[in-house]
Amino acid sequence: MAETALPDIAFASGPDGLSLAYRHAAGAGPLIVFLPGYMSNMAGSKAEAVLQWAVDNGRGCLLLDYSGCGKSAGRFADGTLSRWRGEVLHLIEQAGAGTAETPVLLIGSSMGGWLMLLVAGALVQAEGDEALAGMIGIAAAPDFTSWGYDEKQRAVLAGGKVLYEDNPYGPEPTPTHPGFFADAEAQLLLSDPLAIHAPVRLLHGQRDADVPWETSIRLAHALAGEDVRIALVKDGDHRLSRPQDIALLLSTLEELLTASH
Questions:
Q1: What are the distances in angstroms from CA 72 to CA 89, 116, 172, 200?
Q2: CA of 109: how far to CAs of 93, 163, 174, in Å?
Q3: Which residue of the set 67, 110, 177, 216 is catalytic?
Q4: How would you write 96-135 as a 3-class SS string?
Q5: Is residue 110 annotated as a catalytic residue, yes or no?
Q6: Three-state SS at 154
Q7: Does the active-site annotation cover 208?
Q8: Backbone angles phi, psi at 196, to 5 degrees
Q9: Catalytic pick among 143, 208, 216, 245
Q10: pTM (2 decimals)?
Q11: pLDDT of res. 261
Q12: Active-site choice (24, 177, 204, 238)
């Protein structure tokens, strides 16, 4: 069967006027929303595989680039979880979703898994539990500023300086900006119960060198809902973007969508 053509990249004015790049496929709900990781964008293999699956199956789907990332306007140095949460909620609303009538199913990769929880919390608070059909975390990394940096690194950031770390995925070092760090430290989630009752699936590679797989166990404990399952991939790395990993993601997505009806 030939793959259906994907929707073109479009642009919308964000909450603070910055031009945000996105791809929106119209289709049956819930609206699938993919949230990429830190310094990532909607051109990644997992995001595009989700969009292709949605289009081929007549499902609504939204991909996006946070401000300062991909094809969206803005400076990465100005990005924070709070700002990006506002942008995601803005684009969900523009797509006519995030309500009891058209709920969303959030997929968050790495940092996108932290953002997914913040977006879910905002939707549930504003629209009720019915606005959230479910969540899928891929190496979800909530609270990574609290466990991902040593005291020396934290001191650099607390002092208002940019922290640069080796980047295993590219030639340039990975920056963490002090504004992002300060905002993230105010968004920590795992120390309190999370009042999210939607079905949740957490996929995590046990060879993940960036986000310990135990983070998904902690997240499962924190979630208030009972329908929470974890799939550990023994030989999986952080990205979980091999063909078999993407097949697991898509089968998990299909299962959640089937269960939501």
A1: 16, 19, 20, 29
A2: 21, 22, 17
A3: 110
A4: CCCCCCCCEEEEEECHHHHHHHHHHHHHHHHHCHHHEEEE
A5: yes
A6: helix
A7: yes
A8: -120, 125
A9: 208
A10: 0.97
A11: 62
A12: 238
